[in-house]
Specification:
The protein is built from 24 helices and 16 strands. It is of the alpha/beta class. The protein starts with 7 loop residues before the first helix and ends with a helix. About 3% of the residues have low confidence.
């Protein structure tokens, strides 16, 4: 490993040359694009949309803002930007503003270089140390961001308030020669946003009434939620004009992208006493819940449905299956629809409702979204719920030859005969398999179409089929204290009357 220079003279002899941070990022981005390396590892679904726009902004040397709803990986993308910085950067040792040894800007660093010359000590900053982030809140002050006069420093060092050394610098100047990010920019008070204008346009900062000009070398990036433009604040027009690029983010556009994000972020591989298997069908169902919520008329779409919904939901599913296994002693435990229903708390806290949704109540809206998701996944994998004749009726072709018997006829006839079945997420897989296996035709259609392996997976698949029939109103489902019961819809109506 090559030893890095530790003095100004050694740094000069090494051939190192100063570059602005935007030039540094551009050069490293050019190299990454030429070599075909991933630019933002860990980001899923943005390769053809957001990433090219971010690359264009960085190649142009632009400050930029990411605009999108919550849970669209805006902060994650910003925190990946330091990967485009050099591995380490030389600074004047002990300087507050990460001063360039060849062009220091703060008084302390200028004095040190003048006194020691080539013997000036050099320190090296890592990539991580060159990225600073601030969450914009209404109580953020100019002193927090830019700086202010420090009367204690003036008193202890016997300096006048006209001396630049009495200034206590804020987080922005301390990010000099690096990247500074502000999350939720509209939440920043308008009078504070004004303090950023000079930094973006002229690249310098002003502190109170001091005749001080400190040139800043920064890449400034921001994130914002469109909802904030009307509900909590606004970005003042001059600041918006100075942010050179505005890049729109989005939610995953396919179930595969959403599943990849969930698999990457969710804590599923737990080092516990029992193993939990999550069938692919249930993983798909978890992702479908988010897609249905994003299309629901009861959910406020201007607020969005975060990608954190599916992450929290599948973690709830695994936890419920894990809890059941610990209580019953079965291992491995196979997650099933009942575990998904038990995960409703992961959904109710992450959706904002419109007026109609508020009238229904968040629990009923969550149940409605889950039912829509089950119906959608059921339709993709199972024979038509209403049979082929039902399909023709929807197309207005009643005059055709009647279709073969519905695949679910034996199941429905069993319920029409007055039978009822109760299931619970507390039931071990073997007990659930025995209970649902007694329903004529259920095991046969489940095995033929879904091809589960083993009793536990078959039980989970049969429960999914029952829930799918209930979602299509072919069965009536009633929520019980410890589970659910399924019966014929007419029987349910009679009981209610």
């Amino acid at each position: 490993m090559t030893t890095r220079p530790t003095t100004l003279g050694a740094l000069r002899d090494s051939g190192w040359r100063s570059r602005s941070v935007k030039r540094e990022i551009r050069d490293n981005l050019v190299a990454a694009l030429r070599e075909g390396r991933p630019i933002f590892p860990g980001l899923v679904g943005y390769d053809e949309t957001v990433v090219p726009q971010v690359c264009n902004a960085l190649l142009a040397g632009h400050d930029f803002i990411l605009l999108g709803l919550r849970g669209q990986a805006k902060t994650r993308l910003l925190r990946t930007l330091p990967l485009l910085l050099d591995e380490a950067l030389p600074v004047v040792a002990g300087s507050e503003l990460n001063d360039d040894p060849f062009a220091p800007v703060c008084t302390t660093a200028i004095r040190l270089v003048a006194e020691k010359g080539d013997a000036t000590p050099i320190a090296w900053l890592s990539r991580a140390e060159r990225y600073h982030e601030k969450l914009a809140t209404p109580d953020v002050t100019i002193a927090d961001l830019i700086g202010d006069v420090d009367p204690i420093k003036a008193a202890t060092r016997r300096l006048t308030f006209a001396d630049p050394e009495v200034i206590h610098f804020g987080i922005v100047p301390r990010s000099n020669r690096g990247i500074f990010a502000i999350n939720e920019l509209p939440d920043l008070a308008a009078r504070i946003q004004v303090g950023l204008l000079n930094i973006l346009e002229e690249g310098d900062l002003q502190i109170r009434g001091f005749p001080i000009r400190l040139p800043m070398d920064l890449l400034m990036v921001f994130s914002a939620n469109p909802e904030d433009y009307t509900n909590r604040g606004n970005i003042i027009t001059p600041l918006r004009d100075r942010i050179a690029s505005q890049i729109l983010t989005h939610y995953p556009r396919t179930l595969a992208e959403s599943a990849a994000i969930t698999a990457q972020e969710a804590w599923l591989d737990r080092d516990g006493p029992v193993d939990v298997e999550v069938p692919e069908l249930l993983r798909e169902l978890v992702e479908q819940v988010a897609f249905c919520a994003r299309a629901s008329d009861f959910v406020d779409q201007s607020s969005g449905v975060s990608a954190r919904v599916t992450i929290a939901l599948i973690e709830h599913v695994v936890s419920n299956a894990e809890r059941r296994a610990l209580r019953t002693g079965e291992s491995p435990s196979v997650a099933r629809v009942g575990d998904l229903i038990a995960g409703v708390p992961a959904l109710t806290g992450k959706i904002e409702l419109v007026y109609e949704g508020e009238r229904e109540g968040v629990q009923r809206v969550a149940a409605h979204v889950l039912a829509q998701a089950v119906a959608a996944v059921f339709d993709r994998h199972m024979p038509p719920a209403y049979g082929q004749a039902g399909e023709r009726r929807r197309r207005g072709r009643d005059d055709e030859v009647p279709a073969p018997k519905n695949a679910y006829t034996p199941i429905l006839q069993w319920f029409q005969a007055g039978h009822t079945v109760e299931v619970s997420d507390e039931l071990p897989g073997a007990a659930l398999f025995e209970r649902l296996g007694a329903i004529p035709g259920l095991g046969a259609v489940t095995r033929e179409v879904l091809k589960p392996k083993g009793e536990a997976q078959t039980a989970a698949a049969m429960e999914f089929v029952l829930e799918g029939l209930a979602a299509h109103s072919l069965l009536a489902r009633e929520d019980l204290v410890r589970g659910r019961s399924y019966r014929d819809p007419l029987d349910q109506m009679a009981r209610q009357l």
